[in-house]
Amino acid sequence: MTRIAGIVLMWIALLALPWWLPLIGGYTALGSKVLIYAIATMGLNLVLGFTGGLSFGQAAYFGLGAYGAGMTLKYIAPSTPLAIVVGTLAGGIAATLLGPLVMRRRGIYFAMITIAIGQLFYFIMVRWNEVTGGEDGLAGFSRQDIHLGSWVIPLTGTNFYYLVLLCFTIAVGVMWTILQSPLGHTWVAIRENRRRMEFLGIRVERYVWAAFAIAGFITAFAGTLNALLFNFTSPQDLHWILSGNFVIMIVLGGMRSFFGPLIGVIIFVVAQDYLSSVTGNWMTFIGMIFVFIVLVFPKGILGIFNRRAEAA
Amino acid sequence: MELLLFNAFNGLIQGVFYALMALGLALILSLNSVINMAHGGFLVIGAYLAYTLTPYLGFWGALIAGPILAGAIGLIVERVLIRPIYNRVDPLYSLLLTFGLALIIEDLTRTIWGPQGLPLEIPDVINSPVSTEYFFVTGYRLFVMGITAAAVIGLYLLMRYTLLGIRIRAGTRDIETTSALGVNIYKLRALNFGFGCIFAGLAGVLASGVLGLTPPMGSSLLMPSFVAIIIGGVGSLFGAVLGGLIIGLAAGITTTYYPAASEAVIYLMMLIVLVVRPRGLFGEEGLFE
Q1: How far is Cα B222 from Cα B17, in angstroms, rounded to an integer?
Q2: Whole-prediction pTM value?
C-alpha cells in the first residue's frame, strides 16, 4: 500500500516539476535530464541488476541513439518523432547484433568486452569527422515542433519536459510489463543461479542476449531524447566515463529495485550539476562518491530501506 | 614503402606501451580478480613523478624511481581501499572503486601539474637518430624496446623460477587451496598488485619520452590494453604482451592507408577474435565464461 502511495506521489511530483523545481533553484532542463538518465539507467538495470550481466559499456548505445537522432534531423528530415525512432533503432540494433559476442561471458569478462566494444563506436564518432563533427560533437540540428494533423505542439522547454515525461512513462510501463512476464522472471532466476537454469533446460545465453538487446533499445531511446534536449551531442555521450556514471547511479539508488536507478540519477545528476558549478575539481569529488558508495553503501539507498522492511 | 615501415615501427612502439600496460592489468586481473580501471592512473603517477624527479635524479634515476613509486602507491591503495572488498563476490564493486580512483588521479594530476602537455627530458646519448637509411628512428625507441624486453623477461623468470612467482601462479589457479597450504594470500595479492602498478609506471615513464606527459595519457592507453588482453586471451600473460604488440602494429599499418581508422581497427580486430576464437589467442577455454 505504501508502495502504491509512493509511486502516485512520485508521479504527481514529476507532473508538477516545472512549477516547483525553479522555486528550489533548479531549472526545467535539469528535470528533463534526470528523466532521460533515469530511462537509460533503468534500461541498463535490466541487464545489470535483474539479469546479473556486468554491462559496463552502455553509453555506446546511449550515444548511438543520440547521434542517430541528431543525424536524422540534420541530414534526413526535420521530424522529431522520426529522429527518436531512427536513433532508438540505431542503438538497439547495434546492441542486438553485438549481443551474441557478450552473452556467453560472465562477470569480469562480460564487463571488459562491453567496455571495449563501446570504444569502437566512440572512435567512429570521433574520427568520422565530416559527418559526425568529430571531437567537437554534432551540432546544427534542433528539435522540431510536433505536428499531429493540424494540431502543432511547439517543443519549448516545458513542453519538451512533458514529452520526456511521456516517454519515461512509456518506458517504465514497458519495463515493468517485461519484468512481470516469464521473460523477466527468467532473468532474475539466471541472476540468482545460472547453472541451475541451464540444468532446467533454459537457454540462458538467449535470455542474456534478450536482456542486452532490450537494454540497448531503451538506452538508445534515452539517448535520442538527450540529443533533442541539448540540440547537440558529442563523443562524450558514448565515452566509457558515462558508462561508469550510469552504473554508479544504479548502484547508488539500489540495483535490486525497479525505481532504484531513478533515485540514484536524481542524487548523482544534482550533485554533479552543483559540484561543477562550485569547484573545478568536481571530478575528484565524483570519484570520491564512487569510492564512498562502494566501501560504505554497496546496497544503495533503496537497499537500506528494503533491509529495514525485511527486518520489520 | 618507407612510410609503411615508419608507421609500422611507430605502431610497434605504441604496441610496446599497450603490452606493458596489459601485462600489469593481466597480473592484477588473474590473481586479484580486479579489473583495475585505475591502471591508467598509476601510469600517469609513474610518468609525472619521474618528470618531477628528473632534475634531482637525472633521467636514469627517474626511470627507476617513477615505476617503483607507482608500485609503492599501488601497495597503499591496495591495502587501504581494495583489500576490504576482496570478499565481495560481485566484481562490480572493485570495478567501480578503481573507476572512481581513476577519476580522482586524473583530476589531481591536472590540478598539480596543469592540463597542458609537458616534455620528458631524454639524455642525448639515447635520443640521437640511429638510422636514417630506411626510415627515421631514434635510439630512444630502440631503448624503449630493450627495456621492455628486459622487464618482460625479468617477470617471466620471476614467475617461472622463484617461490614468489610459483605462489602467484598457484594463487591464480586456485586461491583457496593456496591459502590452505599456508601461503599468506593477502600479502601475495598485495605484492602482485604492486608489481602490476610497477609495470604501469614503467609504461608511463617510457611513453612520456615519446608522447609527452598529459593527464589523460593513462586513460587513453587503458582501453587498448583491455583489447590486448581480450585478443591475447584472458589468463595468459604472454598473450597480453603479444596482443599489445599486435594491435599496436595493426594501428600503425592502418595509419599508412587510412589514418582515420587507426583506433577503430583495434576494436574491429577484437570483434573478429571474439567471433573466430572467443577465448583469445592463448586464453584457456572456459575461463570467466
Answers
A1: 10
A2: 0.91
